[in-house]
Amino acid sequence: MLCRFRAGQVAFDGNTGLTSLTVTPQQRLVRIRIWIVFFVIALMISGITAFPLLAEVRLASSLPMPSFAEPWFDRVLTALENTDPLLFYGTDWLAFAHIVIGLAFIGPFRDPVRNIWIIHWAMLCCVAVIPLAFIAGPIRGIPFWWQLIDISFGIFGLLPLWIVHRHIRLYAASLTPAPPSFRDPHPVGRDQTAI
């Protein structure tokens, strides 16, 4: 079933339930790779910010902010300034973990169809941010509004992954050979054996 669309044609595939603008498989692969690179860069930037944690909180505390946020930033800054620098080694490993997780996306970048499971895993990780923030946040005394900021990382991470997932499914469907026609042009006769 095809219907006209301003930007081109939209095709609906009854098997996958997906719609697609007329895009070549090569163009779709480029889109997949662009979104993966975007996600990995965002992931690594969010992780690398854990290295200069004290300097970042000092900078954030010096900026204008809503009155409800000031006590929170003061509390975090005081806690970080009174923390033994040895404990920052833990946030260094947090930053490193983001970098290593980003490296896992080399698989879907190279072969998205075969490695779609990494995209599934990453989507599950993004969803898992929500219960973690709502469970650990109150236990650690994190304000509700900051828990929502933490949750936003999972939601904003899920969006590009969903786009990548959708493109991979469409890309895989475009690579699938058409089913054989009802009439086989090379039927196996009585005196021929099937190989």
General description of the model:
- This protein has one domain.
- It is 64% helix and 7% strand.
- The protein contains 7 helices and 3 strands; from the N terminus they run βββααααααα.
- It has a 3-stranded antiparallel sheet with strand order 1-2-3.
Features:
single chain, 195 residues, mainly alpha, 7 helices, elongated
Compute the number of helices: 7
N- to C-terminal distance: 37 Å
Count of the separate structural domains: 1
Number of strands: 3
- The proportion of residues forming helix, as a percent range, comes to 55-70%
Query: Strand-and-helix sequence, N→C?
Result: EEEHHHHHHH
Unreliable stretches (pLDDT < 50, length at least 5) are 1-9
The largest sheet, given as strand count, sense and whether it forms a barrel, is: 3 strands, antiparallel
Gyration radius, rounded: 25 Å
Strand fraction band? 5-15%
Global shape = elongated
Lateral arrangement of strands in the main beta sheet: 1-2-3
Mean pLDDT: 86
Structural class assignment: mainly alpha
Write the topology of this structure.
Layout (H helix, E strand, L loop, with lengths): L1 E4 L2 E6 L4 E4 L3 H24 L4 H10 L7 H12 L6 H16 L2 H5 L5 H25 L3 H32 L20
Antiparallel strand pairs: 1-2, 2-3
Helix pairs in contact: 1-4, 1-7, 2-3, 6-7
